[in-house]
Design brief:
Elements: H1 39-48, H2 68-71, E1 89-91, E2 107-113, E3 122-126, E4 131-134, E5 139-140, E6 150-152, H3 156-159, E7 165-169, H4 175-178, H5 181-184, E8 193-195, H6 197-207, E9 218-220, E10 226-229, E11 232-238, E12 247-253, E13 256-260, E14 268-269, E15 272-273, H7 275-281, E16 289-295, H8 308-321, E17 326-329, H9 335-347, E18 351-355, H10 357-368, E19 393-397, H11 407-412, E20 426-429, H12 438-450, E21 454-457, H13 471-481, E22 483-489, H14 493-505, E23 520-525, E24 530-537, E25 543-546, E26 549-551, H15 555-567, E27 569-577, E28 582-583, E29 588-592, H16 601-618, H17 627-646, E30 651-658
Parallel strand pairs: 1-26, 4-7, 7-8, 8-9, 13-16, 16-22, 17-19, 17-20, 18-19, 20-21, 27-30
Antiparallel strand pairs: 2-3, 2-23, 3-4, 5-6, 6-25, 10-11, 11-12, 12-13, 14-15, 23-24, 25-26, 27-28, 27-29
Bound molecules: zinc ion (2 copies).
One zinc ion binds near residues 121 and 174.
Length: about 650
């Protein structure tokens, strides 16, 4: 049985809002963490008994003092609810790294994240003089890591070489590309960050949450700009994605270019890429691409993706025809679509209401970036909605993934302060369902339709399109770039494998392709003639953000959380009179998430008897009393009994007090 010696978690911690503010929409955490009243007593009791440390664990490299009271609930991500108070603490375990140094003239590629998952994209390109980083993202937690806020790339390798890092290049403003910045940049020497305007604004906005960090050096680049970082020349190309200012990266080396696409798809008409795409990719026609790293997210899908233009047309049609209020739910990260909806509403003389924090923030950033200029009375405050006839209202809202606290779910649950639906209203769910969110979305649709609203979702109409290239688009891209070597990135392992098949079709021989894992070290040797994978790899243990703590959280913490979730917790509090070895009173039993107490009186009664007998039997003649030993025995006996009676294994915590 484990007691959580190293936890710093409090049951009062409010969950961060995981509304799919960005990334490609991950499931919001719908665990409604109970804010138990007795929780405090329980912990105090534990602490008094020495079974639990005080919550003062001081991880190394603490970035300053934490203002717990005001900040605890603000680990909100993307954007703070109360502005800027998050202080990060770092925990690291030392890992001995014994990696062969880079040979002069060789080029080293290391993906630190994003090649075994969707998320936490980060890749380093290292030459004799410089290290250049592409993207610095985060990943939303997995089902196997309960309580974790998100997962970061492991940057230990970079931390040890920070003097060599010349730049972080950010391809676009989604959180799987920028989300790691507050947690990582100061650890790797705060190198300058080069990116385009909108992305820079999004990075800045997010950084406001972390006022204790040194300021970032943000450098806005133009897509046609050529920059020198250290001794390396870097330039960019524009790509089509779901957010403006998305770009790919070109790094010049003596043996040819290294091209990183970032996230991309193609704008096309019935499978024929547009003139703009042709022009952009003409940059590669001269050849001489040494290495390509490209997005694998949707390579399993056949043909071409639905062009965003088509989605805009369909949404515009819906906006035009709506005879009641129109609620459009989409990912707040779909900035292009959001802008288009507002412009279309304006065209048909309708008013737009924006609701949901991430949605409001992103509209604000888009306005700031000058991406669009609505007339000043197009966007109206939600309170004024009632002053207009229903057919004049278009609301852009969060929650299309069925997230528990986002706007649409509140509307569905009739708990929204300003929006109550009726039969004339239409709800558009302009997003696909992120795996894992199916139940939430079903519940959302059920409850919305129960109120009579008409629902349009992506399965009945082309009102959503992903920002990533399908199979045929990817093939087109490969044929344009014609790389010598290829490393698939951005995706789960199987996606990377499918992507290599496409590379082969486009003419890249198998021996020139490396399928990476996180932390894999790939060296380009012999003046660009050979690509090899080293047997050593960069440190790659999971780095998790857990509340304010960042680190490779011990497995035991995660395991305890899994057990707590499955079988709950059971505490036994015993007070012994050390003079006579008898119990002062009947043992106290406390349980949470285990059995329904009112219906389990018999079980509790039996357990009390077992505890009493076990204690008194164990300490007969034992002077002084060995409390640790006694606790172990009590734990074993109680666990065995509870399992026998309930077939469940709650975490049993014994508290033994001697008086
Ligand atoms: Zn993206
Ligand atoms: Zn991405």
């Amino acid at each position: 049985m484990t007691t959580q010696k190293q936890t710093t978690q409090s049951p009062h911690k409010e969950k961060p809002d995981r509304s799919p503010a960005s990334l490609h929409g991950r499931k919001p955490d719908s665990h409604n963490r109970r804010n138990y009243k007795q929780g405090g007593n329980l912990q105090d009791m534990l602490r008094k008994a020495g079974a639990m440390p005080r919550q003062t664990a001081k991880p190394q490299g603490s970035a300053g003092k934490t203002k717990k009271k005001t900040t605890r609930a603000n680990a909100k991500w993307g954007h703070p609810r109360t502005r800027g108070k998050t202080t990060i603490k770092y925990r690291t375990t030392k890992t001995a790294v014994n990696i062969p140094p880079l040979q002069d003239g060789d080029i080293r590629i290391i993906p630190f994240g994003g090649v075994e998952e969707i998320g936490r994209n980060m890749t380093a390109i290292e030459t004799k003089d410089d290290i250049i980083i592409v993207d610095c993202g985060l990943q939303f937690k997995e089902a196997e890591t309960p309580g974790i806020d998100f997962i970061l790339p492991n940057t230990k390798y970079l931390e040890e070489k920070k003097d060599k890092i010349r730049a972080i290049l950010i391809t676009h403003g989604h959180l799987d590309h920028i989300g790691g910045i507050p947690y990582i940049t100061s650890r790797i020497g705060n190198p300058p960050i080069y990116t385009r305007n909108l992305t820079a604004l999004m990075i800045k906005k997010r950084q406001e949450e972390f006022p204790d960090l040194p300021p970032l050096t943000l450098k806005v680049v133009d897509k046609e700009e050529k920059i020198r970082v250290g001794k390396t020349i870097v330039h960019f190309f524009s790509v089509t994605h779901t957010i403006p200012d998305a770009m790919g990266i070109i790094i010049e080396t003596p043996y040819g270019r290294i091209v990183h696409t970032g996230d991309l798809k193609l704008d096309h008409m019935d499978g024929v890429p547009t003139k703009t795409e042709e022009k952009e990719f003409a940059k590669f026609e001269k050849g001489n691409t040494l290495l390509l790293m490209a997005d694998s997210t949707n390579v399993e899908r056949t043909g071409f993706s639905i062009p965003e233009r088509k989605v805009h047309e369909n949404l515009e049609h819906i906006i035009k025809e709506a005879t009641g209020r129109l609620l459009i739910g989409t990912f707040a990260s779909q900035i292009e679509r959001i802008v288009h909806v507002i412009e279309a509403a304006e065209k048909y003389k309708k008013k737009v209401v924006i609701d949901g924090r991430s949605m409001k923030n992103n509209v604000e950033i888009a306005l700031l970036a000058g991406i669009f200029k609505p007339q000043k009375d197009t966007i109206i405050p939600i309170e004024e909605m009632k002053n207009y006839p229903s057919e004049k209202i278009v609301a852009l809202v969060t929650g299309a993934q069925g997230d528990e606290y986002a706007v649409l779910m509140r509307v569905a649950n009739k708990s929204h302060r300003h929006i109550a639906l009726d039969k004339r209203d239409t709800v558009v769910l302009s997003s696909s369902i992120v795996p894992g969110n199916e139940r939430g979305v079903q519940k959302l649709k059920d409850n919305l339709s129960r109120q009579g609203a008409h629902i349009i979702h992506y399965q009945v109409s082309d009102i959503h399109s992903s920002g990533h290239a399908n199979h045929d688009e990817t093939l087109w891209i490969h044929k344009k770039i014609k790389p010598k070597f290829f490393i698939p990135v951005h995706g789960y392992h199987y996606m990377l494998r499918v992507h290599t098949e496409i590379a082969k079709k486009a003419g890249t021989p198998e021996q020139n392709v490396v399928i990476p894992d996180n932390g894999m070290i790939i060296d380009i040797k012999e003046e660009g003639r050979k690509i090899v994978q080293l047997k050593e790899s960069a440190p790659k243990s999971l780095v998790m953000v857990d509340g304010f703590t960042v680190g490779d959280i011990q497995e035991v913490v995660i395991r305890d959380r899994q057990m707590l979730a499955q079988d709950g917790i059971f505490m036994v509090v015993v007070t012994i009179d050390v003079n006579n070895g008898k119990l002062r009173k009947s043992p106290d039993l406390i349980s949470r998430g285990f059995v329904y107490i009112r219906e389990s009186q018999e079980l509790f009664k039996e357990t009390r008897i077992i505890v009493k007998k076990t204690v008194e039997k164990t300490i007969v003649g034992m002077r002084p009393i060995n409390f640790d030993y006694l606790k172990d025995i009590v734990t074993d006996e109680v666990s065995r009994h509870l399992f026998k009676k309930t077939n469940k294994r709650p975490i049993v915590i014994p508290v033994v007090l001697g008086v």
